[in-house]
Amino acid sequence: MRAFKGFNKDLTCRGYQYEEGKEFHTERAECCDTGFHACEYPLDCFGYYDPAYSVFHEVELSGEMDKSGDNTKVCATDIKIGARLSIAGLVKMATYSEWCSFNSYVGWLQHCDSFRLYQKYVEPNVEYMHNYYLKEVKGNAEICKRKNYSGERKAS
C-alpha cells in the first residue's frame, strides 16, 4: 500500500533511524503502539509532524497491517522508504488523490440515477477538477513525453 510518512529532519522517527530506499521489518503492527506508521492521505502527516521541523517521504507498507479510526493513519510490519517529497509535492499528491476520488465518485453516480447528489457534490467541483486535470495531470504527462521520461519514479 502506498502511503506517506513524516520524519524528523535526520530521518528518525520515535528513536528509529530510517534510510531512503531501504526496507524495514518489525514483528507486530498495532496503531499508536508498535509497527511502522504512515498516512494514506498525504496531508494527514501534518497532524503528526510539524512541516517546519520535518521531512516527508512516500513509503510502501506491506505485511500485517492495522488502521486507526481517527483518520488515514495506518500501521504495518513492513515499510520501504521511497522518495522524499517537498511540502508542495505532498500537497500535489493530496490534490491528485482528491482528483482520482472525484472521478471515481462521478463514475459511481452514472450508475445510481441520483441527480441531487450530482448537483450537490459534482457540479460545484467540475470546473476546478477539469482545470486541475488539464494543468497537472495532462500537462505533466506532456512534459514527461517531451523529456522522454519512462514514468518510473526513482528515490533521490
Offer a quick outline of the entry.
The chain has 156 residues and is an alpha+beta fold.
Comma- or semicolon-separated keywords:
156 residues; five-stranded antiparallel beta sheet; 3 helices; single chain; 7 strands
Structural commentary:
By secondary structure, the protein is α+β, with helices and mostly antiparallel strands. It is 33% helix and 29% strand. The chain is globular and about 50 Å long.
Overall average residue pLDDT: 82
Proportion of strand residues:
25-35%
Strand elements, count: 7
Class inferred from helices and paired strands: alpha+beta
Helix content: 25-40%
Cα(first) to Cα(last) distance is: 20 Å
The description of the largest β-sheet is: 5 strands, antiparallel
Count of alpha/pi helices: 3
Instruction: Tell me the Rg in angstroms.
Output: 18 Å
User: Which of globular, elongated, flat, extended, rod-shaped describes the shape?
Assistant: globular
Order of secondary-structure elements:
EEEEEEEHHH
> Segments where pLDDT lies below 50 for 5+ residues?
none
